[in-house]
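Hi, here's the filled form for the chain we discussed.

Project: internal
Contact: R.S.
Residues: 303
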Amino acid sequence: MDRTRLQRLCERAQSDRWKVPPEVFSNALERSAEKAFSGKTPSETELDRYFDSLHLADLALACACAMGREDAWDHFVREFRPGMYRSADAIDAGGAAREIAQALYAELFGLKERDGIRQSVFRYFHGRSSLATWLRSLIAQRFVDRHRETRKLEPLPDEGSAAPLRATAPTIDPDRARFVAAMRTALAGAIAALEPRDRLRLACYYAQEMTLAQIGTLTREHEATVSRALARTRKAIREHVEHRLRDEQGFTKAEIEECFRSLVDDAGNLDLDEWLTSPSRLGIGEGGRKKPGADRSMSEDLS
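And the returned structure, exactly as it came back:
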């Protein structure tokens, strides 16, 4: 990689904070570009545009954690592990998803070594989404995979049983890309149409992971009022999205439901910071971070 470009990207990522060597960060950037362009040869302009779109600080942190940097790992544990567990509990309150999150946590640390190199799952993070979004997506996908494996082991119903056999869902949906694109466009429009105060509550709750009480302090509302306002906003978003898909895209009711499912399945590239105004730009500091507790995912509330 060009030295000038690498230096600029390292500075943006603040990779020196975690003592990530330039060559290590360069390798991570090159792997990310190879994955994104799938063997094509991008122009220099395309490369610069792609690298500038990445979550560089998260990528540098992932590199440092994969290397076993103790300060980076401590930061990850403090800032990201609680969110992993909240996401797992939102997926399955019974604890199965939390078990997956705990197992993933060990894989992220890199307990196994090969040829003296830690085999950390962090090496699969390419920075195209935020680290928090990528972790949520991993947990959700592994939960689905485990559920599918469990279903394979379930015995068939007895002959004459009223219990029906469910058809296996198709593994490839040719309309999936169309549904995802339409859903993202409609969702972005719905969020953009919100009143600033409603968008601020969403940003505080989902992007900054603040508690209802903390949001109430900011907006000078009782936490029960914040909760009701969030529920009302989520309902308004869904109605807006359904209206756009139905009236502007001409989707049927079944296709609209498939659009919602498609967004959940392809949540890896979904980053709410793309659409929500970050509270940090409004003067909310790190003290406003949400403490571990109950959570609701945006996809859960919309689907």
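Let me know if anything looks off before we file it.
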